[in-house]
Structures are given as C-alpha cells and as structure tokens.
Design goal:
354 residues, alpha+beta, D-amino Acid Aminotransferase, Chain A, domain 1, D-amino Acid Aminotransferase, Chain A, domain 2, 2 domains, ten-stranded mixed sheet, 8 helices, 19 strands, 23% helix, 29% strand, globular, binds pyridoxal-5'-phosphate
Length: 354
C-alpha cells in the first residue's frame, strides 16, 4: 500500500479533554478509486480536502453509503477494532443494494491496520473515549444521467471522540410520528445509505421542537410496529424476555444489536426478534411487566430510554438512571472493547501498533 505520511501532525492542537463528536480528524486517511471495473491502487495520505466536479453522480443520484465503527485503546501499543469484519459485511450489503462495488476484506483490514499504526497517538486513552472510524463510498463519475456510476471513491477517515457518558447516563426521550416514515419493505432501510439520514432530519427536527431527543420509528404500512430509533436499534425487557424488532428489510441491522442478542443469549436470557407493536409496549408498562427500554448503537453502545410518547400518551420510564440490565450489557460490551475481559466471541480485532 502506498503511504504518504503527513509532514506535520495536527495533534498538538487537539484538546483530548474536549472532543466534539465528528469535528476533529486524525492526520491520515485511506483512499481507493474504482475505475474500469476494478479497485485501483490503495493509498494512505494526509487527511485533507479532495476535489470533485459538480457533475459527480453521488450528488445527483445518491449512490453514497457509509459505516460507523470504533477503535479502542487497549493498553500500550494495542488498539482494538470492534467487529470490523461485520462492518465490512454490512457495507457490502449496502453496496449491493445501491449497485456499488464491494470492498475486499483484506484491503479493508490492511487499511484499518495501517491507519491505526500511523495515527495511534490519535486513539484517545481515557476510558469511554474511542477513535471513531468512518468508511464511506460514493459514486464519483462525472455524468448527468440517472444510472449506475462507473466510478467510485472509497475513503476511511478517523476521528477521536469523547466518552459518551462522561457526565452520567442521560436517558433519551422518544416520540413516534404519524406524519413520516423512515423505510418501507423493499426500500433502502436496511442499507446504511446516506439518503436514509437526509430523509430523517425533518422528522427529527419536529420531534426536537416537541422536546424529544429522537423519533421512535414505526413501520410504514400500518404505523403500528416499532422499528428503530435515529441511530440505534431498540430493545424492550419485558418480564424475563429481551425483545427487539425483527430484521425484515426496513431496520438497519446494527452490529451492537447483534452483540446484545449474543450476550443476552449467552447469559441464558430468552430473546425474541419479532414484530412488537407500540400498543404492546404501552400495555406491558400498564401491566407492570415492562422493565427496561434501551437503544443499542456504536456511538453510545447502550442508551437508556426515559420517555416514550405515542399519540398523546406518555410512557414514563426511569428518566434519571440506566436500568440494571442495560448497565450490565453496557459494561459487558465496553469491557470487551477495551480488552478488559477476554474475547470469547471473536469480536475483537487487535492491532499491534508497536
Ligand atoms: C439507523 C441506524 N440504526 C441502528 C444503528 C446501530 O447500528 P450499529 O450498532 O452497527 O452502530 C445505526 C448506527 O449505525 C443507525 O444509523
């Protein structure tokens, strides 16, 4: 792999005690171009602006997909990547849905390992902090035609991020909406496509104006079944069962979701991936069987839900604290990520940067 090192690191300008999510980028980035039916030479170069033409197809026809994953400081000269193979598998599923080329696992892993070695000082060291990794692929052909692009760019950029819960757990408040839907069966909901996010901002803004953190999406056909939240999957602990909506093409298959299900099953808990109606959630609260509600996603790992609003009704959960089950799950996943407990699942991809 061709590597052009940055001549002057920007790291001395960074205050690692005040990291704003997604605002600061490490010194290097990975880049590869797809042209003439094949990925060309992979390259690492200093992070910086790229030039493109206004006719670049991604801007017009939306062939743009991405991933979001993290690397964790796991002791001197060791960085843990969390489930990178699964993130690549999801990226390639997104690529297929949008008629984009797939990325090879060996190229992806080598790119990540080289980036970790070069930008190791950017991996923040305090507990809870991490290096956020953003792979992104987009159509780069210059052509105003609503068709599949013949050229693509793939980048990996990285960004040191703060501990999500540095000021304590802050349960989120959610509201459903009857006005908007996120995804329909057969659409692009299960792909991590840039356009899915663009379409979710207006509903999120309206939820925000009403005092809610995020939208709790319901299915598009009946507005009845719970799907997911803006950037996380949702779990309900009802009685002694852990329930999460089934993946039927409209929900993003979260890597954290998959990890939560595996751990819960391993602990002997009964788990169900099935349709769960918003009425069932409210009924279980009324009958006293709803114990905990939490979201799961790369950013926060586990996010307790404190309130759910649906058609004028309000479900009040614990608005101050994280539930004991969600806490146990949070600790189990994060201690694997930081290498504090042995990884018997094969989720950790350690990188020796020494
Ligand atoms: C729409 C959506 N759902 C769920 C998730 C959670 O997925 P993961 O656990 O892979 O971060 C994300 C975040 O990537 C997301 O954007």
């Amino acid at each position: 792999m061709k590597i052009s090192r940055s001549t002057q690191s920007r790291i001395s300008d960074i205050n690692f005690d005040k990291l704003e999510f997604g605002r600061i980028f490490s010194d290097h980035m990975f880049q590869i171009t797809y042209r003439d039916g094949a990925w060309q030479e992979p390259e690492i170069l200093p992070y910086g602006a790229i030039t493109f033409h206004p006719s670049m197809m991604a801007l017009h026809y939306g062939q743009a997909i991405f991933e979001g994953m993290k690397a964790y400081y796991a002791g001197e000269n060791r960085v843990n990547l969390f489930r990178p193979e699964d993130h690549l598998e999801r990226l390639n599923n997104s690529a297929r849905r949008l008629c984009m080329p797939e990325m090879e696992l060996s190229v992806f892993i080598e790119a990540l390992e080289e980036l970790m070695k070069l930008d190791y000082p950017w991996v923040p060291r305090k507990i809870g902090q991490a290096l956020y990794i953003r792979p992104v692929m987009f159509a780069s052909e210059e052509y105003l035609a609503a068709k599949v692009s013949a050229e693509y760019k793939f980048f990996i950029i990285t960004s040191p991020v703060a501990a999500y819960y540095s000021e304590g757990f802050n349960p989120v408040s959610l509201t459903t909406t009857d006005t908007f839907v996120r995804a329909v069966r057969g659409g692009t909901g299960e792909a991590k496509a840039a356009g899915n996010y663009g379409g979710s901002f207006l509903p999120a803004q309206e939820a925000g104006k009403k005092g809610f953190t995020q939208v709790l999406w319901l299915d598009a056909l009946e507005l009845k079944y719970v799907e997911e939240v803006g950037t996380m999957n949702i779990f309900f602990l009802i009685g002694d069962k852990l329930i999460t909506p089934k993946l039927e093409g409209t929900v993003l298959p979260g890597i954290t979701r998959r990890s939560v299900l595996s751990l819960a099953r391993n602990w002997g808990l009964e788990t169900e991936e099935r349709k769960i109606s918003i009425d069932e959630v409210f009924d279980s609260a009324e009958s006293g069987t709803l114990r905990e509600v939490f979201g799961a996603g790369t950013a926060a790992v586990i996010s307790p839900v404190g309130r759910i609003h649906h058609r004028g009704k309000e479900l009040a959960l614990d608005t101050q604290n994280i539930g004991p089950f969600a806490m146990k799950m949070f600790e189990a996943i994060t201690s694997l990520q930081y290498g504090k407990t042995e990884d018997t699942y094969g989720w950790i991809h350690p990188v020796d940067v020494g």
